[in-house]
Known about the structure:
alpha/beta, Quinone Oxidoreductase, Chain A, domain 1, six-stranded parallel beta sheet, 15 strands, 22% helix, globular
Amino acid sequence: MPTHTMRAIRLHEFGGPEVLRYEEAPIPQPGPGEVLVRVHAAGVNPPDWYAREGMPDVPPELKPPFELPLIPGTDVSGVVAAAAADVTGFTAGEEVFGLLRFPTTLQGSAYAQYVTAPASHLARKPAALDHVHAAGLPMAGLTAWQFLIELGHDHPSPFQAAPHRPMPLDADTTVLINGAAGGVGHLALQLAKWKGARVIAVASGAHERFLRALGADEFIDYAKERPEEAVRDIDLVLDTVGGPRSRRFLRTLKRGGALYPVYFGDFDDEENAKLGVTVTATQVRSNGAQLAELGHLLDAGTVRVAIDSTFDLADARAAHERAARGHIQGKIVLTVAQEPAVS
């Protein structure tokens, strides 16, 4: 029998964007609890280029399993093509979207015409959303949701022993979001506003109009002033940039406040205790039920996904080059042409 193949982006070696190859690959078959999705669009996220590079700076014990050849990508929007016999929640022809198999593997395989997905990682695509915008939502939206609204799992964080418990947000809460124009940041801003919080957005000046349109109450251009010197008595800082410099935001917090670095840095528990603040983080995990809740907010117009740019699947290299230039407003998405599979 002939082998049925599809078009996909694959890695045969680790390196820069030039190692992304557009080529034929076998169409995967759904296993128990899985569906086969015909992909219309795939979101581009930092773990995609971490996988492309081989995660050279990550300790071996923290690396998820992955092997070459590898099809990157975890964010997908498309149409169910088939479902395993034990799947009851989805049927062929339904439009779905999801964050696939994260963080258990970086081999989500969304950069392809077809991908298999655990049914529990999918939700029905919001009717008000096209596939491009839906593909931009899963990882960024679930990161914002699990940091700010509801964790939704009891898996320990690889970065710390303390569990992450989102602070309740309401009209008496002031939230500062660093990196507010990016994928996680612009969605977190809208979720905080949905809960009634006052939001201070930090980004470069080019993004001010965009962020105020999303509901930011105050804007800080980090190129003109340092946010850690400009504000005090903040209840919560969500630092979507994170890393070594995240610690500078401790001085902005009131006693009882919290700092959530999306990319964890070095913190001193004794210093945090002396200041009377909490520093916790988590690692986003696939969750179809939470994604469905986010979908309801998008259908209602409460939250919207901004698209920085789109690229054809064959141009994934250009998409990764765009990501490397930074200053992204919203999400980068790959569009997948609906060519017939190759026999």
